[in-house]
Amino acid sequence: MTKSSVVSSQRRLERKLKELNITLDEERQQHTEQRDQLTLRVKALKRQVDEGEAEAERLEGLRRKAIREMEEMQEQKEALQSKVTALENELNRTSINQFLLKTERGICGMVRE
Protein backbone atom coordinates (compact mmCIF):
# COMPACT_ATOMS: atom_id res chain seq x y z
CA MET A 1 0.00 0.00 0.00
CA THR A 2 1.21 3.36 -0.93
CA LYS A 3 1.12 6.43 1.15
CA SER A 4 -1.50 8.02 -1.10
CA SER A 5 -3.76 4.99 -0.85
CA VAL A 6 -3.41 5.03 2.93
CA VAL A 7 -4.23 8.74 3.01
CA SER A 8 -7.15 8.14 0.67
CA SER A 9 -8.43 5.31 2.87
CA GLN A 10 -8.00 7.46 5.94
CA ARG A 11 -10.00 10.31 4.36
CA ARG A 12 -12.68 7.88 3.26
CA LEU A 13 -12.89 6.47 6.80
CA GLU A 14 -12.96 9.98 8.29
CA ARG A 15 -15.85 10.91 5.95
CA LYS A 16 -17.62 7.71 6.91
CA LEU A 17 -17.04 8.47 10.61
CA LYS A 18 -18.32 12.02 10.11
CA GLU A 19 -21.45 10.71 8.33
CA LEU A 20 -22.03 8.18 11.11
CA ASN A 21 -21.63 10.91 13.75
CA ILE A 22 -24.14 13.10 11.88
CA THR A 23 -26.57 10.17 11.64
CA LEU A 24 -26.04 9.41 15.33
CA ASP A 25 -26.70 13.06 16.28
CA GLU A 26 -29.86 13.10 14.14
CA GLU A 27 -31.11 9.90 15.76
CA ARG A 28 -30.34 11.27 19.23
CA GLN A 29 -32.29 14.42 18.37
CA GLN A 30 -35.22 12.33 17.08
CA HIS A 31 -35.20 10.19 20.22
CA THR A 32 -35.07 13.29 22.42
CA GLU A 33 -38.03 14.80 20.55
CA GLN A 34 -39.96 11.53 20.77
CA ARG A 35 -39.21 11.27 24.49
CA ASP A 36 -40.37 14.86 25.03
CA GLN A 37 -43.56 14.20 23.06
CA LEU A 38 -44.22 11.03 25.01
CA THR A 39 -43.58 12.85 28.29
CA LEU A 40 -46.13 15.49 27.30
CA ARG A 41 -48.58 12.76 26.28
CA VAL A 42 -48.11 10.95 29.61
CA LYS A 43 -48.69 14.21 31.50
CA ALA A 44 -51.84 14.88 29.47
CA LEU A 45 -53.11 11.35 30.13
CA LYS A 46 -52.38 11.68 33.86
CA ARG A 47 -54.27 14.98 33.90
CA GLN A 48 -57.21 13.29 32.13
CA VAL A 49 -57.13 10.46 34.66
CA ASP A 50 -57.12 12.95 37.54
CA GLU A 51 -60.01 14.87 35.98
CA GLY A 52 -61.88 11.61 35.41
CA GLU A 53 -61.35 10.55 39.01
CA ALA A 54 -62.52 13.96 40.25
CA GLU A 55 -65.63 13.70 38.07
CA ALA A 56 -66.28 10.17 39.32
CA GLU A 57 -66.00 11.39 42.93
CA ARG A 58 -68.37 14.28 42.17
CA LEU A 59 -70.91 11.94 40.59
CA GLU A 60 -70.59 9.49 43.49
CA GLY A 61 -71.31 12.36 45.89
CA LEU A 62 -74.39 13.29 43.88
CA ARG A 63 -75.51 9.65 43.86
CA ARG A 64 -75.13 9.38 47.65
CA LYS A 65 -77.02 12.66 48.10
CA ALA A 66 -79.83 11.44 45.83
CA ILE A 67 -80.06 8.17 47.79
CA ARG A 68 -80.21 10.08 51.10
CA GLU A 69 -82.92 12.36 49.76
CA MET A 70 -84.86 9.38 48.42
CA GLU A 71 -84.63 7.62 51.80
CA GLU A 72 -85.81 10.79 53.57
CA MET A 73 -88.72 11.11 51.16
CA GLN A 74 -89.59 7.45 51.72
CA GLU A 75 -89.64 8.06 55.48
CA GLN A 76 -91.82 11.15 55.00
CA LYS A 77 -94.15 9.17 52.75
CA GLU A 78 -94.48 6.43 55.35
CA ALA A 79 -95.14 8.98 58.11
CA LEU A 80 -97.78 10.72 55.99
CA GLN A 81 -99.34 7.37 55.09
CA SER A 82 -99.59 6.55 58.80
CA LYS A 83 -101.30 9.89 59.43
CA VAL A 84 -103.71 9.31 56.55
CA THR A 85 -104.56 5.85 57.88
CA ALA A 86 -105.11 7.26 61.38
CA LEU A 87 -107.34 10.03 60.01
CA GLU A 88 -109.32 7.53 57.93
CA ASN A 89 -109.82 5.33 60.99
CA GLU A 90 -110.91 8.34 63.05
CA LEU A 91 -113.28 9.41 60.28
CA ASN A 92 -114.78 5.92 60.13
CA ARG A 93 -115.26 5.83 63.90
CA THR A 94 -116.81 9.31 63.87
CA SER A 95 -119.13 8.40 61.01
CA ILE A 96 -120.21 5.19 62.72
CA ASN A 97 -120.76 7.03 66.00
CA GLN A 98 -122.81 9.73 64.27
CA PHE A 99 -124.84 7.09 62.45
CA LEU A 100 -125.48 5.23 65.69
CA LEU A 101 -126.40 8.46 67.42
CA LYS A 102 -128.88 9.37 64.68
CA THR A 103 -130.29 5.88 64.67
CA GLU A 104 -130.65 5.92 68.45
CA ARG A 105 -132.44 9.28 68.32
CA GLY A 106 -134.71 8.00 65.64
CA ILE A 107 -135.60 4.94 67.67
CA CYS A 108 -136.09 6.99 70.81
CA GLY A 109 -138.31 9.39 68.90
CA MET A 110 -140.44 6.53 67.64
CA VAL A 111 -140.78 5.06 71.10
CA ARG A 112 -141.98 8.38 72.50
CA GLU A 113 -144.63 8.73 69.90
From TrEMBL:
Origin: domain of life: Eukaryota
Residue ranges of every copy of the Myosin tail domain listed in the record: 9-91
Any GO MF annotation of the entry: microtubule binding
Keywords: Cell junction, Coiled coil, Tight junction
Xref: InterPro entries: Myosin_tail
Coarse class of the protein's main subcellular location: other
Entry coiled-coil feature ranges: 10-97
Entry keyword annotation includes Coiled coil: yes
Subcellular location: Cell junction, Tight junction
UniProt-listed GO biological process terms: microtubule cytoskeleton organization
Cellular component terms per the entry's GO annotation: bicellular tight junction; myosin complex
PANTHER family registered for this protein in UniProt: CINGULIN, CINGULIN-LIKE PROTEIN 1-RELATED
Family per similarity comment: Belongs to the cingulin family.
Protein name in UniProt: Cingulin
Organism listed in the record: Carassius auratus
Taxonomic classification: Eukaryota, Metazoa, Chordata, Craniata, Vertebrata
